Each structure stands twice: as C-alpha cells, then as structure tokens.
Amino acid sequence: WPYGDICGIGPVGKGQGTEFSLTFRKGSGKKSETLKFSTEHRTELLTEALRFRTEFSEGKITGRRYNCYKHHWSDTRKPVNLEVTPGGIDQIDPHTNRVVCSYDYRNIEGFVEVSDYQGGFCIVYGGFGRLHLFASEHRDEIIRSAIEHAGNFIGIMLRLRREGLTFEDFVTERLGKYSSDESITSLAEFVVQKITTRHPEPVKRILALTETCLVERDPASYNIVTIKPFGEVFALICDVDNPQVFTVEFIRGQIRKYSSTERDSLLASLLDGVRASGNRDVCVKMAPTQRGQRWGLLSMPVDEEVESLHLRFLAAPPSGNFADAVFKFNANISYSGVLHAVTQDGLFSENKEKLINNAILALLAQEAELPAVNSELESHFQAIRRLVASKAGFQAFTQLPKSGQGSGLTDATFREKLGVKTVKALKRNNNGVTHAAIDMLCALMCPMHDDYDLRQEQLNKASLLSSKKFLENLLEKFITNVHHGTGALVISSLLDFLTFALCAPYSETTEGQQFDMLLEMVASNGRTLFKLFQHPSMAIVKGAGLVMKAVIEEGDKEIATKMQELALSEGALPRHLHTSLFTVSTDQRMLTNRQLSRHLVGLWTAENPVAMNLLKRIL
C-alpha cells in the first residue's frame, strides 16, 4: 500500500501483545478496510511505520511542541524543543527547526524526576539506563502525554519512576550501567572527526576504546559526549571512496560516521575490542547494511526458516541475480556462523548439512570471472566465512564434493577452488578483499563453532598449510603492509592466522613439518615482526608478541639468537620492559599483554650478555 492510502496503523488490545491493525482506503471512494496482523516484533514494526505518518492519508497528527532546556554534556543548558509524537519524543533545534534526535518509546525505559533541578526530568534510555536530563515548566504534561502516546500508538506501558533523583545522582549515573571507572577508562584513543547532521562541519572528538564500550570524548574538556556498549555494534563500514571515513552500525539502528587519519588501526583495535567483549557477530565491510534486506531485527538472529531460505537462495537466486543473493544472505546470517546448522531429528526436518554444502558449492562455482566490484568479491568471502564457521561447513572443506555426488565438480574440490579464488582475490591488492579472505581462512584454521572435532581441525589445517607457495603469498601481503605502515586489518587477520598455526594451544593440531616450514618462513622475516611492536593498535602488538614467543621457543638456537639481536637493534626490548614493569590495570587484556611482555623480555635476555648489560644500565 502506498503510504498515501493508509489511514492508520496501531496496536490491538491493551498492554503488550502481538496483534496490530492496518486501515487503508480502497479505490477513489470513501471506503476503507482494516486488516489485522500479528508479529513478535510489533513494537519495532509500529515504530518504523509511524516514521512515515506525515504521508498517511489521515492522521497527519502533529504533536504539541514544548520549550525546554537540555542539560548538555558540556555542563551547560541548551534551549531545545521537545515534541511528543506517536512513535517517540523528538528533540528539535529551535533555530533551524530540524529534528536533532528522536527518543523512540521502544527504547525508553521510563521517566524520572530530578528533585532539586527546577522542572527537571530524565528520559531513561537505550537499554542500559542512560539518562538524558531536560527541564521544562510543562514537565508533567510532557511525561503524561508521552506515556499515553506510547500506550495508544505503540502498545507499550511506560512509567514515571516513584523515587526521584537528585542532580548529583544524575551526574554520577548519567551513563547508566556503564558509569563505572572500568567502563570509561581508555585502553586506546584515536583522534577523529565526527560527521553528523547535528553540526554543519565535522567536529573533532576523541574516540576511546574501553574494556566494554566505545566512548566519544570532547578533546578540549575530556568530557564524555556519548557512550555505546560493544555488544550493540552490528558492523563496521569502510568507505570505499575516502580512505579516512568509516561508519559504525548499531543493532538498534543508529549509524555513526567518523573520519580518521589512522582509520585502519582504529578499526583493527575496535574489531578486537568488540570481539574480545563477547560480540562475535561483527565484521568490517565496504557496503553498508541494507536494512530492507534483513527479515527481522538487527538486534536478534533471524528465525531458522529465514536462514534456510537464504541458504537456498544462494544455490538458486530468486531474482537470478547471484550478487544480490549473497548480500541478502550476509544481511540475514550472523557473521559468527549459520545458527541452525545441525539437522534436527524429526520426520520433516531438512538436511542442514546438504543445504550448507550446496550454498558453498554455489559460492565457489562463480569461478570463471571474479566479480569486478571489490565489495561484491568481499561479500563472497564473508558469506563463505559464515558457512565454514558452522560445523557442516567446517567439515566440508576436506570432504566436498563426496565421491559420486556427480555435481560436475568432481575434478576440483572445495579446497582447490577456494585456494584458486583466494589467490586471485589477493592479486586485487585491495585491503578489504584481502582482510575478508584471510578472516575466512582463520575460520577454517580454528573452528568457530562448539562441539568441534579435533581430527577435522587437523585435516583442515594440514590442507591449508600444504602449499609453500600459498603461504609465501600470504606472508608477502603481511610484509608489504607492515613496511608501508598500511592495512592494519590485513595485518591483524594474518597475525590471527599465524597464531592458529604456530601458537599454543592451537599449534597442537598443526602438522610437524608444516609447523617447522612456516616457523622458518616467519623467522626469516623477523625484522617485520619487530616493526609491529611500535604499532598504534594494541591488538596487533599482542598478536606480534604471541607469534614472536612461538618463534623463539620453538625455533632452533640460531633463530633464537637472531631474534635476541633484533630485539635490541629494533628497540623492542626497552618498550616491552616498560610494559612489563609499569602496566597497572584491572583489564584482563592489559594484564595478558603485560604477562606477554614479561615473557618476551625473559626470552630476549636469556644467555645474552649484551642485553644483560643494557638492563644493568637501565635499572
């Protein structure tokens, strides 16, 4: 239905339910018809639909506007207008008359009055108790009206909390459950320009990564402007045209755009932080997520049925457009892997393994020509990553195609085709494509699913590490990026690859001869590894340290001595000594790094008189 034919949309029944009704005009006459639907996601559906309400044929309702003050992060009061609308409360800039931001009812946790602040009330918002403080002489009316609108139009019950807050409470609890020191203490900071409609020009900010959050600070005062938990990050987008611009997409639909001269180092650190905090569904890509391609919310995985359909669409694209099917698949399937990947017992249950295998074959059948557009090629690898992160996909690597499947692919196996595709893709010399390909290889090196089979891991690894030429290809990418100071994401994914091959406990499944060969190749590029100890991304310093430790502990005497000499000539010893002695933190990651630095200092100074003399002079 065109929005112009819609008379109204709203919840059915009192309180939280799943039913809603849609009323629309039929033909040119006055007749209208009402249909009833039911969905688990009623709140979200109504909120999104009402954003178009001004185009509806009836109900071009404009709410009342109230003059207010907002207590700004800079500790000043700014005049704003608040408008109570059917879907949320809009904050409007009185000078330009533009909506600055909307507080959707679906994300409002409640209202609370601030007792010692005249006309003061807070909107408790965003799922973690974040407080936004406003003051207005119409306080009671605004809150009453918002509660009514939320009930009538969205079907949710909002409340004014019984106990008020004092202004001091607001100051200490403004960031909700992330107000504590560990949530706001930076582990890494980057200077960025924030690109936003609120400001005509980009604004300078410090983007800080903490243990659990992405924190935006004002460079002049170091005040916190905004905070977003890592668990709410959905995807990271690298702008293709501008090498400094990137976007962070969040599961509640917000999108934040920044530019930074150190974009790739920032993204490598951010990706590491988000994954370390337990959010495994995040990836870096070139094409923004098309919300209309996802059959459900960003904040929760799609249903099993949706997953199965999209697996089928890869094998037989409904529009005949394969590229489109891949983007849709990626928009619906979690990056951490197909969720419903194991066949359920039951009469009508589908064979999931077969669906996954067919999807893999479809992605590898597109062999003749790699897609010309880089973002499309990247999406192929990210789709394969989603498939091999599941048990069936992980096994398929050495088992597909099974003899007698007669799919016309008997000449080339999954492994060979993937090898060819990867080598061709690396020749593109595009960091986005390279990173996607290597992140996919990592999911084949180390199972990303539960209940895995060590034997399968050994087989996959043996097959990935079997070609010296292929490994030289990967290391070549590593060395050029390190020496040019580029491609932090590529470096970081290659360090993961090397970690899964060479570092304990992962190295237990690496075949002996292959282990020695790869170790030798890495050791002969020792200087490259040492360069990384000066890298701005903590994640990369840690990865380089783990690989270095393996090289010294597992290599022969000659290799170890060479590394000790390089530790001095490349200035790595003093830096790690500093980390070993002076890291004070409660964060597990920082403590792991300190432990690693101590270990490296020990390895570099053992039976090394030159280093011992240096330590003597330092201490």
TrEMBL record:
UniProt superkingdom: Eukaryota
Transmembrane segments: none
Designated name of the protein: DnaJ subfamily C member 13
Gene that produces this protein: DNAJC13_3
Pfam family of the protein (one): RME-8_N
Domain DnaJ homologue subfamily C GRV2/DNAJC13 N-terminal positions: 1-619
